[in-house]
Structure formats: structure tokens, C-alpha cells
Design a protein that fits this description.
CATH architecture of the domain at 359-454: Alpha Horseshoe
Largest sheet: 5 strands, mixed
């Protein structure tokens, strides 16, 4: 047997899950009582049977009445059929004809829009009646009744009813179901199926537990489709499929047979079955047992199960608290379903409950109840066209509130973008809510800043908040937010006030410069950038054409980044004469740098020697330029200055021949550290000789290695086959008759010729020689 978990449903919402607080499994069905007229009927009477049409319901009672109800349970028609229990009601597919049988033997078949039809009183209780599904059509005026035998009624061409005994002798017929041309019925021994096409009985499915009284534990029958019958009896379920027999096997057998494709046991007693796609909805009667949990013992259960060949898998299991459930037996419950939509009716004497598949709104309800707000929001966004009770934005707002309650402020702020969208009023409300809980920083980076914007005071409030506690965050917002979002002057004043307390704060100063830039007060911004030696100073000058403002700041610019400064000044000579300004203000180093970049290196060297008198700088400058004339100028200027000569002797050896300098030194001139300088020159010279010899050895070794490699390569054999051609005549290099003598010339460049195709000398490859004598300088000759 298959043990199934259960969920308990109680009043007034009709549902309470005893695992509700901990279970993460979503219910498959939702429940509600059928009320309105049904409530009034069941106060003074009791339901005995019901059948379901897509458009209406037909309810039979213990006092012999039949009520037609709309889907909400309102009474639309009432029929006084008998004074005793209505056993079964049958409707055709059109919903225009009804068949009714009662405990006192009455059978009525009539049109709902006319009372003309079949009316008969039998001398025994009639338990079941079933109309042909197409009863409204003239050629299908057929129905069956079941008491102590199963009778088939057919209207003949004379408009009279003729009777056929389909089956008898096995006790009372307790259930009958007609689908297409197949009739299934149950008696105390088992279930039979009758084929209306051939008028033959095609199967007999025996019941498993013969100890159960058929009147107390009746058989449940349900057609899943035109050929699949589901049988439930006691605790056993069988799924039977009607199949066509192979014509070669027919002989005296019916043309159809039944195969049981699934059979399994359940834990409780079956009192109703209904298909749900490839699953089963099963109504169980839970018999009281002192070993079970007392409070939930006798509640009927509605389970969804997945049939397997020899067992089943539980999908969901719900215990239902129907009215007066403790007074009911298995035979008091019925399960009916609407084939047009997934509606399941649980009928008991004093209560009728409707089970429905949960829709997307119900799914969202459950997710919200479980505080799975993100999943609920996603489900609502995906199904926004189908949901009726929920609003995507309201779910999103609930999600944001939940995130704030749990302290996940960043996620809550991020969700605002998606949830609040273009609703500026909601945005402002949320900003104030974040302010109330001290989390303005969290929402700052997600505020609208495009075409849709909040009031400037909202942005200013957030900037002031950052300015109090987070200078870096404040600077980031100023860089990221467009200046038109807020009152720039108010923020400038606020930053200035903070700088009074911390005048050297580079973050605030940089931010103030950016604010000045936006406010087009570029001179103020330039002063701050220069003071901070900020990399953006050059971009600011270029972008806003501030060359007139930097005439007195050239030294600062060059001191900060000489290369960038000179590039900028030289690229904009028409806007500012940097060289002239430097010369006027006697900025020697800056003038030297400008002259060198302008190509006037001799003048630059002259200023270094004459005005700076820095021999090391002059030598370094000459090295950088690597110009023989500059070295000559440097030697000429230094020849009468002993300190300069010393410097040159110490550094000139690797760039200029020291003899040129030494020869020009006047006799008798006293030169500081001359001996050390000469020793250094000799040492440098020896070092150069050693380096040259080392390089020569390396070159010789490499040349020899490469020569040997080339020789080995050229000594290798060359494959000649039918795929090669003569480079002169373009014919196949090998003759068709290999037995005849022939000569092939193969050069090291891999070009091949017939010997007779080469010129008389034939020493070199024609192709390679035409380009330049090279790889074809050798020759291989193949003869045969």
C-alpha cells in the first residue's frame, strides 16, 4: 500500500494545513463550499447524488427532489420526482436531457425544456441510470437502468421504447458509466464493459476484496477518455484500456479486449475518482481506527496521485473537514468532475465542496504567505496579463517592505528601480522612508537621473547626508549625477562650509573643483586642480580654453607634469607664447625644455652651460639628444673650464672619442682629478674592447652553426613523384614509361626541370636566378 501525507482543511476558509507553518510544498488545489441555494437545500434535506455539466449542476436529495443549480449553487429549477432518495442523475453531453432514478423504482428520462420522455415505475429500487452521451440526436435515443439487472432502452422507428437485458443474475447494479459506444457497470462481483457497436460484453474485471459489502463500499467508475476506464473499489485502483483485437485472433472472441495497464493498492477506502491530465484525483474515506490520530480520523481525503504500473506516487493529499463528517460512511461520499475545466465536487449528505486547480493568483498568494516575495514578483511579471487579484507594483512594494524589515537595504533600494518605475510620487515616498530608517545612502545610487527626475530637494537631501558622513561617497555622487539634478550653488556653499573645518581635505577640494566646473567658474576650478596637482588640470584647460588663465602658472604646470605641460603649450602656440613668457620671467629650466622640444637644441645647451653652469645637466642633455654637433659645442665651451673638462672626461668615453677632447686641452692647464679621469677612460676603453671581442665570438659561433645547419638541410634527399612538374615546360616531371632512360634536375630551392628543358649552362635555377641568385645555387641531378 502507498502511504500518503495529508493536509487538513477546516472552516471558515475551509483550509488549514497542519504542516502549514513548516511545509515548503505548495498545495495543488484550493477549496470552497458550494453555497447560496445549496445551503438552503441541505438545511432541511440531504444530498444523495449529483452530476456535473459544463453549464450547470444537477443535485438529487434524500427526499426525492432534483435541483438544477448554476455554478455558484443558485437554484434555477426544481423537480419533485419522488418522496424517497434519488439514486442517480444522468445528463447527455448537450445538457438538454436528464435521466433520473430513485429508491422507489421510478425512472424518468425527459428533456429539460419539455417533460415528454420516458416515465416508468419498477417493482424494485433502481440504483443507476445513464443516457447515451448523444441522446439529444434522434438516432441515439438510448439509455440504461440498473436495479437487479441492467436494461438497455432504445427508441425504435415507431417511436416506441424497446428493452434489452444486457446483464442479470449477479446482484444489484451499483454503478454505471456510459462513454461513446462503451457502457461500464459494476455489481457485487466486479466490473463489466459492454460494446454498443457489437452488442457484446468484452470484459469482466473482478473485485479484489470480496469481504467488503458492495452497498457500504460501492465501486467507483470513471472514464478518462473514450477507451480508458478507471476502477476504484475498496482500497484497490485499476486503470483499464480498451483495445482493438488483431483481426487474425478474433474467431469467436469480441473484436475488443481490455488490458489493465496499472493496478495498485491505497491506504484508505475509495469513494470517488476523477482524471486530471495524466494524474488521478481520488476521494478517500478514512475509516475510524483507535490507532490513528483522534482529531483527524474520519475526515475524507482528496489526493492527487500519479499512477504507476504497480504503485502510485503522491502529488498532494488534503484532509477535508466537511459538515457532519463523523456521521458519514464511505457510501455517503461521491466525487464528480467537470470535464470542461478542472473542477472537482465532493458531495456528502450535508455539504458540497468544490476543489479547483490553483491559478496564478493562488500561486502568488502562497508565495506571499511564505514570504517568497522575489518569486511572487517574478511570477506576477511573467503572468501579468492573466492575474486578476494581484498587481505587480503592489507585490513589488510588499517585497521592498519585507527587505527593509529584514535589514537588506541594498537589495530593497535596487528593487526600487524595477518596482517604482516612472511613478515619481512613489519614488519620493520611498526616499523619505529610507531617510526615516537612516538608509539614504542605500537608495542614492538607484534614484532616477534621466528624463524623469525627482524634485531637486530630494537629491540635495541625499547629498547633505553623504556630506555629513562619507566624503568619498559624496564625491562619487557629484561625479555620477548630472549637475541639473540639484541646486549647484547650495551644494557649493555646503562644501565650502565643510572645508572651513578641514581645509586640506583633497576629496572635498576635488569635488568643489568639479562643482565649480559645472557652474562654469573655471578659474576657481583651475586654482584647486593646480593646488592639488590633479591630473585633470590639462583636460580642464583644453576643454574650456583656459590658456589666458595659465600665463602665470606655467611653472606650476611644468613642475607637475613637464611632458604634458610642454605638449599642451607647443600644441597651442597660437593661444599662448610659453617660450616668451618663460624667457621674460627667467624660467631657465622651463625655457631649456621648451627649446629642446622645439628643436633648438644648440640654444638649449648654451643656456644650460652659460646660465645654469651645470656640466652634468649639459652632458645628460647631450646624451639624450645624441648629436655630434652638440658634443662638439659642449667640448668647445668646456675646453677652458677645468671643472667642465673633468666632467666630460668622466662621461664622454661611451659617446665620443676621448682623444678629441684630450688633444684640445692646453698644455699646463690644471685639471682637477685628471689622473682618475684618465684611468676611468682607459677602463671604459678596455671594457668596450672586451665587449666587442665577446660579440665577435658569438657571431662567429652563430654563423658556423647556421652554416652547418644549411649544409645538412641541403644534403637531404628530395622526393620526386608523379605529382611534381617541370617548372619550364609544366609537364609531369617523370615520364610515363619509367623503363626508358631520363634525367631530372632538382635544385636546392626544390624547383625541378627536365634536363633538356634547362639552358645549356644549367648551373642555376632559372626561376630563382631571375629574382636573385640565392637558394638555387646548388644542383641535384637524377638520372636513370
Amino acid at each position: 500500500k502507498v502511504s500518503l501525507r495529508r493536509r487538513v482543511f477546516l472552516k471558515p476558509v475551509f483550509c488549514h494545513n497542519q504542516e502549514e507553518d513548516t511545509s515548503e510544498e505548495e498545495p495543488k488545489l484550493k477549496y470552497e463550499r458550494l453555497s447560496n441555494g445549496v445551503t438552503e437545500i441541505l438545511q432541511n434535506d440531504a444530498a444523495s447524488c449529483m452530476t456535473v455539466h459544463d453549464k450547470f449542476l444537477a443535485l438529487g436529495t434524500h427526499f426525492g427532489k432534483v435541483f438544477l443549480l448554476d455554478i455558484q449553487g443558485n437554484i434555477t429549477q426544481k423537480f419533485e420526482i419522488s418522496s424517497v432518495k434519488i439514486n442517480q442523475i444522468s445528463l447527455d453531453e448537450s445538457g438538454e436531457h436528464v435521466g433520473i432514478c430513485s429508491e422507489d423504482g421510478k425512472v424518468q428520462v425527459f428533456g429539460l425544456y419539455t417533460r415528454e420522455g420516458f416515465h416508468e415505475n419498477f417493482d424494485c429500487p433502481i440504483k443507476v441510470v445513464a443516457l447515451h452521451p448523444q441522446f439529444s440526436r434522434s438516432n441515439y435515443k438510448q439509455f440504461v437502468t440498473g436495479g437487479n439487472k441492467l436494461l438497455l432502452y432504445e427508441k425504435n422507428w415507431l417511436n416506441r421504447w424497446k428493452t434489452l437485458v444486457v446483464h442479470e443474475g449477479e446482484g444489484t447494479i451499483t454503478n454505471v458509466q456510459w462513454r461513446a459506444n462503451l457502457i461500464a457497470w459494476a455489481n457485487k462481483l466486479g466490473v463489466k464493459i459492454f460494446d454498443m457497436t457489437t452488442k457484446q460484453r468484452i470484459t469482466n474485471v473482478l473485485r479484489d476484496d470480496a469481504t467488503l459489502r458492495p452497498d457500504m463500499y460501492p465501486c467507483s467508475l470513471c472514464w478518462k477518455d473514450d477507451t480508458t476506464l478507471i476502477v476504484g473499489w475498496g482500497t484497490s485502483i485499476k486503470i483499464c484500456v480498451v483495445k482493438e483485437r488483431n483481426p487474425t485472433e478474433i474467431r469467436d472472441l469480441p473484436s475488443r479486449y481490455v488490458e489493465i495497464v496499472s493496478a495498485f493498492e491505497t491506504e484508505f477506502f475509495i469513494c470517488g475518482l476523477a482524471p486530471l491530465v495524466d494524474q488521478l484525483v481520488t476521494l478517500f474515506f478514512v475509516k475510524e481506527n483507535s490507532d490513528q490520530e483522534g482529531a483527524f480520523e474520519a475526515r475524507p481525503r482528496l489526493d492527487i496521485i500519479q499512477p504507476l504500473p504497480e504503485s502510485c506516487e503522491e502529488i498532494s493529499s488534503d484532509a477535508l473537514t466537511v459538515r457532519f463528517f463523523r456521521d458519514n460512511e464511505c457510501r455517503d461520499y461521491r466525487l464528480e468532475h467537470s470535464e470542461g475545466e478542472s473542477l472537482f465536487y465532493i458531495i456528502s449528505p450535508k455539504d458540497i465542496v468544490v476543489a479547483k486547480e490553483r491559478d496564478q493568483d493562488d500561486h502568488i498568494d502562497w508565495l506571499l504567505e511564505k514570504k517568497k516575495y522575489e518569486e511572487a514578483l517574478m511570477a506576477a511579471e511573467i503572468s501579468f496579463k492573466n492575474i486578476k487579484r494581484h498587481d505587480v507594483q503592489k507585490i513589488g512594494m510588499a517585497y521592498i517592505s519585507h527587505l527593509l524589515e529584514t535589514g537588506d537595504y541594498d537589495t530593497a533600494a535596487r528593487k526600487c528601480q524595477k518596482v517604482l518605475g516612472k511613478n515619481m510620487e512613489l519614488w519620493e515616498n520611498e526616499v523619505y522612508r529610507f531617510k526615516t530608517i537612516g538608509q539614504l545612502k542605500a537608495i542614492s545610487q538607484y534614484l532616477p537621473r534621466g528624463d524623469l527626475r525627482l524634485r531637486p530637494s530630494i537629491y540635495e537631501m541625499i547629498l547633505h547626508e553623504f556630506l555629513k558622513t562619507d566624503y568619498e561617497g559624496f564625491a562619487t555622487l557629484i561625479r555620477e549625477w548630472p549637475g541639473e539634478l540639484y541646486n549647484n550653488m547650495a551644494i557649493v556653499q555646503a562644501v565650502s562650509d565643510h572645508l572651513k573645518k578641514d581645509p586640506a581635505n583633497s576629496t572635498l577640494l576635488t569635488t568643489l573643483a568639479e562643482l565649480y566646473t559645472y557652474d562654469q567658474r573655471y578659474d576657481r576650478a583651475l586654482e584647486i586642480y593646480l593646488r592639488l596637482r590633479h591630473k585633470d588640470v590639462y583636460q580642464l584647460i583644453h576643454k574650456h580654453n583656459l590658456f589666458s588663465s595659465i600665463e602665470d602658472k606655467i611653472v606650476l604646470l611644468m613642475d607637475f607634469d613637464k611632458e604634458k605641460a610642454v605638449d599642451m603649450l607647443l600644441d597651442n602656440e597660437d593661444k599662448i607664447s610659453a617660450l616668451e613668457i618663460c624667457q621674460q620671467r627667467n624660467f631657465v629650466e622651463e625655457t631649456v625644455f621648451l627649446l629642446s622640444r622645439m628643436g633648438n637644441c644648440r640654444r638649449a645647451l648654451q643656456m644650460i652651460m652659460e646660465e645654469l653652469e651645470d656640466v652634468d645637466k649639459a652632458i645628460e642633455f647631450a646624451k639624450e639628444q645624441d648629436d655630434a654637433e652638440l658634443w662638439e659645442d659642449l667640448i668647445s665651451y668646456s675646453i677652458d673650464k677645468p671643472p667642465f673638462i673633468t666632467g666630460l672626461l668622466n662621461n664622454i668615453g661611451t659617446h665620443v672619442d676621448p682623444i678629441l677632447l684630450i688633444k684640445r686641452i692646453k698644455e699646463g692647464m690644471e685639471i682637477p682629478n685628471l689622473r682618475d679621469s684618465l684611468v676611468k677612460i682607459l677602463h671604459d676603453y678596455n671594457l668596450q674592447i672586451l665587449l666587442r671581442e665577446g660579440c665577435k665570438k658569438i657571431l662567429v659561433a652563430d654563423s658556423l652553426s647556421l652554416l652547418q645547419k644549411m649544409h645538412r638541410t641541403q644534403m637531404r634527399g628530395v622526393r620526386v613523384d608523379e605529382g611534381n612538374i617541370c617548372e619550364s615546360c609544366h609537364g609531369t616531371i617523370l615520364p610515363s614509361d619509367m623503363a626508358q632512360p631520363f634525367t631530372v634536375v632538382v635544385f636546392h630551392c626544390r624547383h625541378m626541370f627536365h634536363k633538356e628543358c634547362l639552358p645549356s649552362s644549367g648551373a642555376f635555377c632559372n626561376i630563382c636566378s631571375a629574382k636573385k641568385r640565392g637558394p638555387g645555387s646548388g644542383i641535384l641531378e637524377k638520372k636513370k
